[in-house]
Design brief:
The complex is a heterodimer of chains A (652) and B (144).
Chain A (H helix, E strand, L loop, with lengths): L1 H10 L1 H12 L33 E7 L3 H6 L14 E3 L2 E5 L5 E4 L6 E4 L7 H4 L8 E5 L2 E8 L2 E6 L14 E3 L7 E5 L5 E3 L2 E4 L2 E3 L17 E5 L5 E5 L31 E3 L4 E5 L21 E6 L5 E6 L10 E12 L2 E10 L4 E5 L9 E5 L13 E5 L20 H11 L12 E2 L10 E3 L12 E4 L4 E7 L3 E7 L9 E2 L23 E7 L4 E7 L27 E2 L3 E5 L18 E6 L5 E6 L9 E5 L2 E8 L7 E6 L2
Parallel strand pairs in A: 25-29
Antiparallel strand pairs in A: 1-39, 2-3, 3-4, 4-5, 6-7, 7-8, 8-9, 10-13, 11-12, 12-14, 14-15, 16-17, 17-18, 18-19, 20-21, 21-22, 23-24, 26-29, 27-28, 28-31, 29-30, 31-32, 33-34, 34-35, 35-36, 37-38, 38-39
Helix pairs in contact in A: 1-2
Chain B lengths: L2 H24 L3 E2 L7 H14 L1 H4 L16 H7 L4 H11 L10 H14 L12 H4 L2 E2 L5
Parallel strand pairs in B: 1-2
Helix pairs in contact in B: 2-6, 5-6
The chains are: A mainly beta (652), B mainly alpha (144).
């Protein structure tokens, strides 16, 4: 392949680009992007570990979240235990962001360190950081680059030794901070994707936005940018909020586009190298619970946008939520796959949303594979609010988690639990999906707001999607965690809207005695969806949950699921999944919301074939590779009380 | 004073110093119950907290925004209880603010630790915490 690349470079640069893209495709047994490949399928065809021998899996190595050499240099390096990275493996070497976001290379068979990326300067300031979900790799001939976003910067790291390329950006890195009003530090929890020779970076530069809460509507739009992988030069910027004169500007009434922002495509990205498109899952806009100041549908909030990776020009878009009032971000990667619907091949993109719908579109043109119908939804009761009268409802596939909330959804294993649950939800308005947030009553006897499922952390999140290209099955991993949506009259001096949510979102998650959940199970689930038919094939709870609590143990219940965010790995016959961790922000509280179990499910039926206990709960997505003829599974673990680390499993 | 009495006193003093030295080399020699920060330092910490922490952890330290944890109360105290105070210091220094880790100065972080101790009911003393190394010898100890 490298030889043909060289030939093409000599013949015609245009052809060379195409071949270079092909050359980047992973080799068998590799895991070259943190989603497995750029389709973000979280899938590997490896079959050495099978349903017959999975019971023999054992831990073969562990490596700490931060290499001891760094800890020696910086004794105060004490990383967060939410180690959310997924490693990659290319050309016989594994690479991972460590728990402070620096890259480390290690031997895939032993976990032993090969090199550690050094902080840009030898200071605690530069050494500090957080882990990212992952990285991408790019190759041209013998030049293998690892693309990493850390803090304010995009880095190209030489895979040979962890050094930087002096000609990339400024001294080896590109400053991602934006300029303009309401901008601040750059931050992103996911990672870049390289399509062709372009590195695409999403993330956020908003300084004071209220996309995730607050009193201030003004914010910087989280534009997406493309950079030259050779030089780090900025090639294009896609405006997350249309500028005056651009299509879509009129979806922000009262010129609110001038001050609206956030709506970052913060989740993992995917790309189609053949089509030259990158898929951007935009999220909720500024002030996600109150939109009285931004009448209209608010493009490109909660919209999937396909962008030409060479030019940054939009090819198509599809908006999932109009005028969001629930922070229902598009979440998880836009998963790419070929499906067969009514005898036709469809190049599909499958985009999950926090609202528990999976939107299935033709990724060449953005048209729904099955009809998505605009249906009436309840109006808002907040003065001045402009809730959309309709929202798009997919006719297929069915929702993958609980939507809306009523007394019929409350736990009823015992009369006592049901009574406690009724009391817990009594202070709140309940209703169907898309019931807008309500006012918090000044009276303790009045309604305290809306209680809705899914909540603003979603049913699904970054962990949700995986796709099996052999069986056309999509796997949604989700949790059932209703939350409270409250609106109050602005009473803070900093407020720039007449209404906003209470400081700190009040009590967003209500609690039952003894940390018991108040809805019926499952509290976390795997939903397998046959994408050729748009139908659910099976659903399984994804962990023990409260089945062994004093209240429920006598009932001898099966797995009830965990209110956390484990990510799946699909192989030839199996689906691997942990139970999440209490270190993961935005998940359930208490001892039943996570666990240390790691399971192999039969991917065809959802039945548990094998389980083991890891040193801690899974915080990152598992990945797999073959090295010297042996298959390994590696996953990041940690909890509030357990230090972050990588754990590798293999057959003896 | 008799010679023996004087020798006894010297012996006691030697014993006391030896125990103190041993205690220092064996581990923590103070706890958060011993007034390890000053009120002035906690006041400085309050200012930094207001500028860099309260937007997520709130003025009440109860947390909530962006799922930030509470920095006071039983769960917080039980998490750090028994650990060297430096562990709390280094966690803040390494990871906070969440969207800009590495931006806090050493002194700012020490002041923040003082403020958090104050808000959790640990008593102030007469001297400031001035060096991170000193926090290695202070044990986070709840009243319970």
């Amino acid at each position: 392949m490298r030889r043909s690349l060289l030939l093409c470079v000599m013949i015609a640069p245009a052809i060379a680009l195409t071949v270079a893209s092909a050359a980047q495709s992973e080799k068998p047994g590799e895991w070259a992007y943190y989603g497995g490949d750029k389709s973000f399928n979280r899938y590997s065809p490896l079959a050495q570990i099978s349903r017959d021998n999975v019971k023999n899996l054992q831990i073969v190595w562990r490596r700490p979240g931060v290499d001891p050499s760094l800890k020696q240099k910086f004794p105060d390096l004490n990383p967060s235990h939410y180690y959310n990275a997924t490693p990659i493996m290319v050309d016989g070497v594994a690479y991972t962001p460590n728990a402070v976001g620096l890259l480390e290379a290690f031997n895939p068979a032993t976990g032993k360190t090969i090199w550690v990326q050094q902080p840009f300067e030898p200071t605690m300031k530069e050494a500090s950081g957080r882990s990212m979900r992952g990285i991408d790799s790019w190759r041209s001939g013998s030049d293998l680059r690892l693309l990493l976003v850390r803090g304010n910067y995009l880095y190209a790291v030489n895979a040979k030794d962890g050094s930087l390329y002096p000609a990339f950006g400024e001294k080896g890195r590109v400053d991602l901070r934006m300029t303009g009003p309401f901008t601040g530090r750059f931050h992103w929890s996911s990672g870049p994707i390289v399509v062709g020779d372009v590195v695409v970076v999403a993330g956020s530069s908003a300084a004071n936005g209220a996309g995730d809460g607050g009193f201030v509507k003004e914010s910087s739009p989280d534009d997406v940018r493309g950079y030259d992988v050779h030089t780090g030069k900025l090639l294009w910027t896609f405006d997350a909020v249309p500028k005056p004169g651009e299509p879509g500007y009129d979806t922000w009434g009262n010129d609110s586009a001038k001050t609206a922002g956030n709506l970052s495509a913060w989740c993992p990205l995917s790309g189609d190298e053949k089509l030259g498109l990158v898929y951007l899952p935009f999220s909720a806009p500024t002030s996600s619970y109150y939109g009285g100041w931004r009448p209209g549908n608010n493009l490109y909030s909660d919209t999937l946008v396909a962008v030409d990776v060479q030019t940054g020009k939009m090819k198509w878009y599809y908006q999932m939520i109009h005028h969001d009032l629930w922070e229902y971000d598009n979440i998880g990667p836009p998963v790419l796959g070929q499906i067969n619907v009514d005898g036709k091949h469809v190049e599909a993109v499958m985009q999950a949303n926090k609202n528990a719908f999976l939107y299935v579109l033709d990724r060449t043109n953005g048209k729904p594979v099955w009809p998505i119908k605009e249906r009436p939804v309840p109006p808002s009761t907040i003065p001045g609010e402009h809730a959309s009268p309709t929202q798009p409802f997919p006719t297929k596939p069915p929702a993958f988690d609980l939507q809306g909330l009523s007394d019929a959804d409350l736990i009823n294993f015992t009369p006592e639990l049901h009574k406690e649950a009724l009391a817990a939800v009594k202070p709140f308005v309940l209703g169907p999906l898309y019931t807008p947030p309500t006012m918090k009553s000044d009276s303790p006897d009045g309604k305290q707001g809306l209680l809705m499922s899914p909540g603003d952390w979603g049913s699904g999140n970054w962990n949700t999607g995986a796709f099996d290209p052999e069986t056309d099955m999509y796997y949604a991993v989700s949790m059932t965690m209703p939350e409270v949506f409250q609106i109050i009259k602005a009473n803070d001096a900093k407020a720039t809207m007449p209404y906003n949510e209470p400081e700190g979102r009040g009590y967003s998650t209500i609690k039952m005695p003894n940390d018991m959940p108040y809805t019926k199970p499952p509290y976390g689930r795997i939903t397998a969806i046959n994408m050729d038919r748009g139908e659910i094939a099976w659903m399984s709870a994804d962990g023990d949950g409260p089945r062994n609590s004093p209240e429920l143990k006598p009932l001898n219940l099966p797995m009830l699921g965990v209110m956390s965010r484990p990510a799946p790995l699909i192989t030839k016959t199996l689906l691997f999944l942990g139970e999440g961790s209490d270190a993961i922000i935005g998940s359930g509280k208490g001892p039943y919301a996570w666990g240390k179990k790691f399971r192999a499910y039969d991917k065809a039926t959802g039945k548990v074939i094998w389980e083991t206990e890891l040193p801690s709960g899974t915080t990152g997505g598992p990945m797999t590779y073959t090295y010297q003829g042996k298959q390994y599974i590696v996953v990041a673990v940690g909890s509030k009380h357990d230090a972050p680390e990588l754990v590798a499993l293999a057959l003896p | 004073m008799s010679k023996w009495k004087s020798l006894e006193l010297w012996g006691l003093l030697v014993c006391f110093v030896s125990v103190a030295v041993l205690a220092k080399s064996a581990g923590p020699e103070a706890t958060t119950q011993d007034g390890v920060y000053s009120q002035a330092q906690a006041d400085e910490g309050k200012k930094t907290y207001g500028e860099k922490c309260s937007s997520c952890h709130l003025e009440s330290l109860e947390g909530g925004v962006n799922e930030s944890p509470a920095l006071k109360g039983d769960e917080f105290i039980s998490h750090w209880n028994g650990k060297p105070l430096r562990a709390l210091y280094s966690r803040i220094l390494s990871t906070m603010p969440v969207n800009d880790p590495g931006s806090l100065e050493e002194k700012e972080t020490l002041d923040l630790v003082a403020y958090i101790l104050e808000r959790n009911g640990f008593p102030a003393g007469k001297t400031e915490m001035t060096k991170p190394e000193d926090l290695s010898n202070i044990q986070f100890k709840s009243k319970k």
